[in-house]
Specification:
Layout: E1 6-8, E2 22-25, E3 35-37, E4 55-58, E5 63-67, E6 77-78, E7 90-94, E8 98-101, E9 107-109, E10 113-117, E11 121-124, E12 133-137, E13 140-144, E14 147-151, E15 153-164, E16 167-171, E17 180-192, E18 196-207, E19 210-213, E20 219-228, E21 232-235, E22 240-243, H1 266-269, E23 285-288, E24 292-295, E25 298-301, E26 303-307, E27 311-314, E28 319-321, E29 354-356, E30 359-361, E31 394-397, E32 404-409, E33 412-414, E34 446-456, E35 461-463, E36 480-485, E37 498-500, E38 503-505, E39 522-525, E40 532-533, E41 538-539, E42 544-545, E43 557-558, E44 568-570, E45 584-586, H2 599-606, H3 610-636, H4 661-664, H5 668-676, E46 678-683, H6 710-724, H7 728-740, H8 742-767, H9 776-781, E47 785-789, E48 796-801, H10 815-818, E49 821-826, E50 836-837, H11 841-847, H12 853-867, H13 875-895, E51 899-906, E52 915-922, H14 923-930, H15 934-946, E53 952-953, E54 959-960, H16 965-971, E55 983-985, H17 988-992, H18 1017-1043, H19 1047-1055, H20 1064-1072, H21 1077-1112, H22 1134-1158, H23 1169-1174
Parallel strand pairs: 1-3, 2-4, 5-7, 6-8, 7-10, 8-11, 9-12, 10-13, 11-14, 12-15, 13-15, 14-16, 15-17, 16-18, 17-18, 17-19, 18-20, 19-21, 20-22, 20-23, 21-24, 22-25, 23-26, 24-27, 25-28, 26-31, 27-32, 28-33, 31-34, 32-34, 33-35, 34-36, 34-37, 35-38, 36-39
Antiparallel strand pairs: 4-5, 29-30, 40-41, 42-43, 44-45, 46-48, 47-48, 49-50, 49-52, 51-52, 51-55, 53-54
Length: about 1200
């Protein structure tokens, strides 16, 4: 066929247009495409009803085209028979053509596509004669702005069914034989642009792919609707799946709801597996064997059932509704009066009473099974009234055998009862005056869900609430919601099966005006296994257990209180707690399971508890102390153990004061030779500290002016003073160490003092040329000047000697010529440096000119024994026994030899530092002094009172004078009249005027101070060993206790004074195991310093415990265990206080130990004059 012309077989135009003709083309070879028209003719009498379209059959592709060229018509084109062999390929009905298949029981079957486009209409059967069933078989059914009408039933089988703004209407006509239609699309069903499939009978839509209702206006509705076998169903926003129809006509098939049935229909719990449409079943809308259902529109029905679905996701705009789709009557129907007043229907809860003008009527009864609800909600009860209300329908998801995997609800799932006056179509026959009394609200229906997991978002809502009553009518009772969980995981594999953030409620409907509200319905879940409770089978709260099956909260019983350790809290475990004992954890990581003990408590209770642990610890300490004592005896040696050793008359070595042994070991002949050439001893001024070092005055004393050159002497003093000064960094380091570790600072000070003395002696011995001396022999031999110091390194002096070539008979002077002699005390009265008289071989030999050496030794030993008891800060009190001893013991014995001694102070420096010592003069001076008149004595006392602040304590624990030196010189003028001596006498009167400055360390002097010896040195050492070990044990226990608070507290206590709390132990061991009484006493004093210093660390530990205890006081739990040594309890202070007591006891024992080492002759403290001098 060639050409592009037209072929026409159209109907003629006229008052009534003629019908189109028929054209058949059977040409294989076509080079052009001519236009072929077979439409009907136009009708002038009825323009909307043109002639019917003709047919065009193309024999080569076997396609049938029915097209009316966009001319509207009400006349059908009859399609009487479709060939079976061969089948047509395609059928096209378009451009306002109307085709009908009028013959009953006809089948339309094509190999390809049936397409209805542009207003095309395809009808099956005859209107008002729904007597047969029709079949439609094709590969594809495409509809665009077209209509399919079926009068009877339709069985359709296609692979793809697409609708665009089209409608398929199936009219069953009320005939039971043709009441079910089946639409099958194996691959795809898509409805778009307000497309609809409507049936007033039963309708089944089956497929194996996707059913997609794309958007607003798209709907599938039927009196009974079954959707099955799809992989996915998507109900878009505004789309509807509904069964039964809204506003169904009387000829429609009406599903039977069985409103009076009190037993649950078996098909709701065990639905058939075939998913076929079955009129005998109670479903009005069933979705069966669909994997995933995504709902953004509306699914509505009286009894909605989802069977063998995997997931249902109700999006925010999505709704599954059976609201008002239940019974008007029903088992729990409301009651009503002749006036029209009605009560609410009942279901899960009783309906509300209806009351008006004093007349009330009871609401409907509650019915049904809360644990497996499947009953329709009941209505107001008066079915004859047009404004009666209906209860909610039934929504069932899943089944026992095939539960849902997941249900996601962001929108609404509702089966609420109908409220009075909601349905406008039921109010057409009522007037305003009739609304004084009305029916009650319908009760909520049932929502029964068989599922594995539930997720209800914040916008999600599951409700089966009662409807509101009309005027004065009662509210409907709430419905029932039940979650029947499947395969609830338990134990370690437990996972929460529900996440509910939205609303799930079955509240009763509100009454209006005088009407009462309905009772709430029920929300239940399947009985939970052990350990889980509630509607959603949640884990029992921490501290409870559940060992039975059930969902009641009361089944989660409290765990026994006696099983919970102190400082523990119960914890929730995965899957809940099914049996006792209930799991718990300690309230902090610092406590250890299973008893939630601290590290300290674990140690204590490992050994049987506090009492047994204490006994074991004490026993161990005693045993270790005995071992230490034995080891000390073996290590130190028996010969060095201290003990009383009485002094023998005439002995040159006195054991009564070990500090003098090194001086007394010098041979008598050497002492005599050196003392014979001694001229004068000049004392350094100052306490030898970093702030006030030793220094010599530039003016030479009167005693040496004859043997020195004054100018060279001044140069010598300058050099000596320069050497005696300290560098700035030495004092800075000392200041830092005083803050961090005072014992180390003291050791540093003594070390620098020792080095300073060594440099001074080396300078005088070998470096200085002795140019200040007049003696040529002394200058040549580097002799004539010597520097020495006391053992405490606080008092230094320069001795001047004759060279032997002076040829002066008056030199060196004899003892009586030297009177009065000043003998200064070493030390400053502190614990580490007590006052002591330094009597070397020169002094001893010099005094030996009048006093026998044994008497002088005894005197020095007794005086030093008294001086060591003097404490700084208490000089007023402590110097009185010294004065009394001088009057009762010393002077009576020395007066026999023509000598008297008095306590005095000397050498006040520019900084106010003064030194105490003895003033030695001839006994006859005492008589002269006693002969002074009373007025002179009163004048001297008055002068002393004006110098009341004679000496005060300075920053280095020594004493300073604040009054001018001249005042004190005048007060002692009568005593020192023979020679100019810088100082003054200290007696009982001047002591009253003494003012002492207390420093912050003064209270420590009551803990560490020098005492009298007590003897029993071995026993004291044993007790010190025990206390030392006990102290170290308490330190470790305290650190363990602090570790239970935090590691930071341990470091704070350890390093606030670095390791100050730990160092007393090694210091004590070092002191106990040292050789020699003198060295042992010095180390014991250092040990005492460390012991006192550690009190700062203990105070910090106390503060840490106090702060933690107060911070935890509101969180403390009842204590079920006696003697709980926890920092969380009231006994937190035991170890810090125990350490303080232990430190105080240690200090007392150390004081005795030092006294036993330094004073080996206890008779030195004898009050008996004869006994003292005879020992």
């Amino acid at each position: 066929m060639v050409g592009s012309g037209r072929m026409r077989a159209c109907g003629g135009n006229g008052f009534a247009g003629g019908g189109g003709g028929r054209v058949s083309v059977d040409i294989f070879s076509r080079h052009d495409d001519p236009k072929i028209f077979v439409h009907g003719g136009s009708s002038s009498g009825c323009p909307q009803n043109s002639g019917a379209a003709g047919t065009f059959f193309d024999a080569v592709p076997r396609s049938l085209i029915v097209s009316n060229h966009n001319m509207s018509t009400d006349t059908d084109t009859l399609l009487l028979e479709f060939p079976n062999q061969p089948l047509m390929t395609n059928v096209y009905i378009r451009n306002h053509a109307k085709a009908t298949v009028p013959l009953l029981w006809s089948r339309v079957q094509v190999q390809g596509q049936i397409s209805l486009l542009c207003g095309g209409v395809l009808s099956f059967g005859l209107a008002h004669y729904a007597l047969s069933e029709f079949e439609l078989w094709a590969e594809e059914l495409l509809m665009s702005e077209s209509v399919i009408k079926v009068y009877g039933a339709l069985r359709m089988s296609v692979k793809m069914f697409l609708m665009w703004n089209s409608t398929m209407r199936i009219d069953g006509g009320g005939d039971a034989n043709v009441e079910t239609s089946l639409l099958e699309a194996s691959n795809l069903v898509v409805l778009r642009e307000s497309s609809a499939i409507l049936s007033n009978a039963n309708l089944g839509v089956h497929g194996q792919g996707l059913l997609n209702l794309s958007g607003s206006g798209d709907s599938i509705e039927a009196q009974r609707l079954v959707l099955s076998l799809f992989y996915t169903i998507h109900v878009g926003p505004g789309s509807i799946l509904r069964g039964p129809l809204e506003n169904a006509k009387t000829d429609a098939v009406t599903p039977k709801l069985n409103c009076e049935l009190q037993n649950c229909p078996i098909e709701l719990l065990q639905p058939p597996e075939d998913c076929n449409v079955n009129s005998s079943l109670s479903f009005t809308l069933q979705i069966c064997r669909v994997e995933d259902i995504l709902l953004e529109g509306l699914i509505e029905g009286s009894i909605v059932h989802f069977h063998r679905a995997r997931t249902i996701a109700v999006q925010t705009l999505g709704t599954i509704s059976a609201t008002g789709m239940g019974c008007t009557g029903g088992v729990g129907r409301g009651k009503f009066l002749s006036s029209g007043l009605g009560s609410g229907g009942g279901h899960g809860g009783k309906g509300g009473v209806g009351c008006y003008d004093g007349s009330c009527i009871e609401g409907g009864l509650a019915y049904g099974d809360a644990d497996l609800p499947c009953e329709l909600g009941s209505g107001s009860g008066n079915e004859s009234l047009t404004d009666s209300t209906a209860g909610g329908g039934i929504i069932v998801m899943g089944s026992r055998e095939h539960p849902l995997t997941n249900l996601f609800v962001e929108g609404s799932v509702a089966s609420d009862g109908e409220s009075g006056g909601e349905n406008s179509k039921k109010k057409v026959n009522r007037t305003i005056d009739d609304w004084n009394a009305g029916p009650g609200g319908g009760s909520g229906g049932s929502i029964l869900v068989f599922l594995r997991s539930l997720d209800v978002s914040e916008s999600g809502n599951l409700s089966s609430a009662g409807g509101r009553g009309s005027q004065n009518g009662g509210g409907g009772g709430g419905g029932r919601i039940h979650f029947h969980w499947s395969d609830i995981p338990t134990g370690d594999v437990y996972q929460p099966i529900a996440s509910v953030k939205g609303n799930i409620h079955t509240r009763g409907g509100l009454g209006r005006d005088q009407g009462g509200a309905g009772e709430n319905g029920t929300v239940t879940g399947k009985a939970c296994p052990k350990g889980l409770y509630g509607t959603f089978c949640e884990e029992c709260p921490a501290g409870t257990f559940k060992n039975v099956t059930g969902s009641d909260r009361a089944l989660c019983r409290q765990c026994p209180a006696y099983e919970l350790p102190h400082r523990a809290v119960y914890i929730a475990i995965r899957g809940g707690i099914a049996e006792t004992p209930c799991p718990y954890k300690c309230i902090s990581d610092r406590y250890h399971m299973p008893q939630c003990y601290t590290a300290l408590e674990e140690l204590i209770y490992t050994f049987g508890g506090p009492w047994l642990f204490g006994f074991l610890l004490v026993g161990l300490l005693v045993l270790l102390a005995l071992v230490l004592s034995v080891a000390r005896i073996k290590f130190v040696g028996v010969e060095e153990l201290p003990g009383p050793a009485p002094t023998q008359h005439g002995s040159q070595i006195d054991h009564s004061f070990p500090f003098l042994e090194s001086l007394n070991e010098v041979l008598e002949t050497n002492r005599n030779e050196e003392s014979q050439s001694h001229v004068h001893r000049m004392y350094f001024m100052g306490p030898n500290t970093f702030s006030e070092p030793w220094h010599l005055p530039h003016t030479p004393p009167e005693q040496v002016k004859e043997i020195v050159y004054e100018g060279e002497f001044n140069r010598f003093v300058d050099e000596i003073n320069a050497l005696a000064a300290y560098q700035w960094w030495e004092g800075s380091l000392y200041g830092i160490l005083c803050i961090l570790a005072y014992p180390v600072a003291w050791s540093w000070l003594q070390w620098r003092r020792r080095i300073k003395l060594q440099r001074l002696r080396e300078f005088v011995r070998s470096e200085y040329d002795h140019a200040c001396l007049r003696s040529c022999r002394s200058r040549a031999l580097y002799e004539g000047v010597k520097v020495a110091a006391t053992s405490d390194l606080m008092l230094a002096y320069v001795d001047f000697f004759l060279g032997g070539d002076e040829k002066r008979n008056d030199l060196p002077p004899r003892l009586k010529q030297r009177f009065p002699i000043s003998l200064l005390f070493g030390g400053c009265g502190s614990y580490m440096a007590p006052f002591s008289l330094h009597s070397d071989n020169i002094i001893t030999s010099l005094m030996g000119q009048s006093v026998p050496p044994t008497t002088w030794y005894r005197f020095v030993a007794g005086l030093n024994a008294q001086l060591r008891l003097v404490r700084q800060g208490r000089l007023k009190v402590m110097l009185r026994p010294v004065l009394r001893w001088l009057d009762t013991h010393a002077n009576p014995a020395l007066r026999i030899h023509g000598v008297r001694v008095d306590l005095a102070w000397f050498q006040a420096t520019s900084c106010g530092y003064c030194q105490y010592g003895l003033l030695v003069y001839a006994a006859e001076e005492e008589t002269e002094q006693a002969s002074l008149n009373r007025s002179d004595e009163l004048a001297r006392t008055d002068q002393l009172s004006r110098s009341s602040s004679l000496c005060k304590e300075n920053a280095v624990n020594c004493h300073r004078v604040e009054t001018p030196l001249s005042q004190s010189q005048r007060s002692t003028e009568n005593v020192l009249r023979q020679k100019k001596t810088c100082g003054g006498i200290v007696d009982s009167n001047s002591l009253k005027m003494l003012e002492e400055k207390m420093n912050i360390f003064y209270p420590l002097s009551f803990i560490t101070h020098n005492t009298k010896p007590v003897g029993h040195q071995d026993l004291v050492g044993l007790v010190i060993s025990m206390i030392l070990l006990g102290d170290f044990s308490l330190v470790l226990l305290t650190l363990l206790q602090l570790y239970s608070i935090s590691l930071a507290n341990v470091f704070l206590v350890l390093f606030v004074l670095p390791l100050g709390i730990l160092l007393p132990f090694p210091a004590g061991i070092n002191a106990l195991f040292s050789h020699g009484p003198r060295r042992s006493a010095g180390l014991a004093r250092v040990y005492a310093l460390w012991n006192v210093t550690s009190l700062v660390n203990i105070v910090v530990a106390f503060i840490c415990g106090f702060v933690h205890y107060n911070g935890q006081s509101s969180k403390r739990l009842p204590n079920f265990q006696p003697w709980n040594f926890s920092m969380d309890e009231s006994e937190w202070w035991i170890f810090p206080v125990g350490l303080v007591l232990c430190k105080c006891i240690q200090s007392r024992l150390i004081n005795w130990h030092v006294a036993n080492l330094e004073i080996q002759d206890r008779s030195l403290y004898s009050d008996n004059f004869e006994l003292f001098w005879q020992s």
